[in-house]
Design a protein that fits this description.
The protein is built from 25 helices and 4 strands. It has 533 residues and is mainly alpha-helical. The protein has a two-stranded antiparallel ribbon. It has a two-stranded antiparallel sheet with strand order 3-4. Helix 11 (247-265) crosses helix 14 and helix 11 (247-265) packs across helix 17 (365-376).
Length: 533
């Protein structure tokens, strides 16, 4: 009491030092007791008496185990709960009370605790974005059940099983059968190993993507991966049987379908179709629809033969020398000279995309597919990116007033030649800015054009005068028809109209040929004096 009421700092310092020395002695004694207890436990374990010793209760104040009789040793730098602090006595008393309350809530090591087993913890992490393990096991059992029922399986049976148990189109069967067959017989064990690793636990779209890859480690599909699939489609689909007598058209049809796949799925023309591109392109649903439909033209999509017919005939009409290459003069005649000279020159300079044709200043059939589909359907993302790169002279991602004026000057000249009312660039540019409403004034970006949904009109104003005039004087019935058929794209409507026109022209030519043949036959059969009366 005398020390606690003293205000002399020297007395308080000596009193704190004395208590620290006492706590150090207690700590050393506790360490000695603990060391002796551990030695006894080790000695008992060596003699095989640990179980009896641990089960025998040790007399203590709390009736617990020896480990519960004293707290575990702490680090030498820490103070014991009873050691005083060099601070004021009031603070020391508060700290001691807090420590006593926390130690009273500390769980006892002597109380038994039950640890849950590892098997009771459900799986909560699935790598590679897979579904639950139960779904994967169900898929594995389904695949094994479908392909182990018969020891021998021919191509038709394998294709049916592939469609029933793996939910893949039948025309993929010839490709997989050739990969996992020896001497015309399916190697069931090798295919099951592939199917379980690539199909089990995955969605139907992912299964088709994995089946098309030539290598299991590949992360994308190249155009060469689609060639065996197209060969299987040409061999098995009833709507393409008429092409079996013309192998050259089979090759062109396959080339057109593959190019259209990459046109829709890979706008940057990288020819690397990854899983994300495969899913966005809706390739799986197109393949299943074609597999279920006998009429290949009933499905408007990648595999429609009418679309291939239009593309090939338009290319053949422009290719006057029939060397299967187009020059600048040939492309300028497209759609009655719709495109301007400057735009065509940008296309041949590979501004919108790298040209596949290796001949200088020429474009081939694959390049023409990108050109015609982008010209006739400017609502697609690929077409908008295609024409934006054509107009972007400095490739900075912005269409400036200088660039647009440079292209519009040729349009003004065409207006004068056609005796149309000439519209100045200032008026057109103000109207285009009001229509597009770009984020930055006088800086039109591709994002602005996609957002305003008026990209077709914007592009036609600057390099396609025919379509610009048609838009200004369009028929309301055509607009009404387009609104009533929202499932059709601009390319679908154009392909249907052109296919009807080309079919009628072909029929007229055939009829004219028949009539000429009949006239020649009549002339041969007519007697010499038949015309003299």
């Amino acid at each position: 009491n005398l020390v606690s009421h003293s205000d002399n700092p020297f007395v308080l310092w000596w009193f704190g030092a004395f208590q620290c020395m006492c706590s150090i002695d207690d700590l050393e004694q506790s360490q000695t007791d603990t060391r002796a207890m551990l030695n006894s436990l080790i000695h008992a374990a060596k003699q095989g008496k640990l179980q009896q010793q641990t089960q025998t209760p040790v007399s203590s104040g709390s009736g617990g185990s020896p480990m519960a009789a004293s707290p575990p040793p702490r680090s030498p730098g820490s103070r014991s709960p009873g050691s005083p602090s060099p601070r004021s006595p009031s603070l020391h008393s508060q700290e001691a009370a807090i420590r006593r309350s926390s130690s009273s809530r500390r769980p006892s090591f002597s109380s038994p605790t039950t640890t849950p087993s590892h098997a009771a913890i459900p799986q909560f992490f699935f790598p590679k974005d897979r579904k639950q393990q139960t779904v994967e096991l169900a898929h594995t059992q389904e695949i094994r059940q479908g392909f182990t029922a018969s020891t021998t399986m021919n191509l038709s049976q394998f294709s049916e099983a592939l469609r029933s148990f793996c939910r893949l189109p039948k025309f993929v069967g010839p490709m997989l059968f050739e990969r996992f067959s020896t001497d015309g017989e399916l190697n069931t064990s090798a295919f099951l190993k592939f199917a379980v690793s690539q199909f089990a636990g995955y969605s139907d779209e992912e299964r088709l993507f994995h089946a098309l890859k030539r290598s299991d480690s590949a992360t994308y599909l190249s155009p060469d991966d689609w060639v065996p699939v197209m060969n299987g489609l040409l061999q098995t689909h009833p709507g393409l049987e008429f092409l079996q007598q013309t192998p050259e058209f089979q090759e062109r049809y396959s080339e057109c379908v593959i190019e259209r796949l990459y046109y829709s799925c890979c706008p940057i023309a990288s020819y690397r179709m990854r899983l994300k591109d495969f899913l966005l392109g809706d390739v799986y649903s197109q393949c299943i629809a074609v597999d279920n439909e006998e009429d290949i033209n009933a499905i408007n999509g990648y595999f429609c033969y009418e679309h291939f017919y239009v593309l090939y005939c338009k290319f053949w009409e422009l290719d006057t020398d029939h060397d299967f290459l187009l020059d600048r003069e040939d492309v300028l005649r497209l759609a009655n000279f719709s495109l301007t000279f400057r735009v065509v020159d940008r296309i041949f300079k590979a501004a919108p995309r790298p040209l596949v044709c290796e001949v200088p200043d020429r474009i081939g059939f694959r390049d023409f597919i990108w050109l015609l589909m982008s010209e006739e359907d400017k609502t697609s993302h690929t077409a908008q990116q295609y024409w934006f790169r054509v107009l972007d002279l400095d490739a900075d991602g912005i269409l400036s007033a200088y660039e647009l004026d440079w292209f519009f000057k040729e349009q003004m000249h065409r207006m004068e030649v056609l005796s149309q009312e000439v519209v100045t660039f200032d008026d057109i540019y103000c109207q285009m800015l009001d229509m597009v409403k770009p984020d930055k004034l006088e800086a039109v970006t591709l994002r602005d054009l996609k957002r305003c949904r008026m990209a077709p009109l914007f592009f036609n104003v600057f390099f396609n005068l025919n379509k610009f005039i048609q838009y200004e004087s369009r028929d309301p019935s055509i607009v009404f028809h387009e609104r009533n058929t929202p499932e059709l794209t601009d390319w679908d409507r154009y392909a249907k109209q052109e296919y009807l026109r080309l079919s009628m022209e072909e029929e007229e030519e055939q009829q004219a040929g028949v009539m000429e043949g009949d006239e020649s036959i009549d002339a041969v059969d007519m007697p010499e004096d038949a015309g003299v009366h």
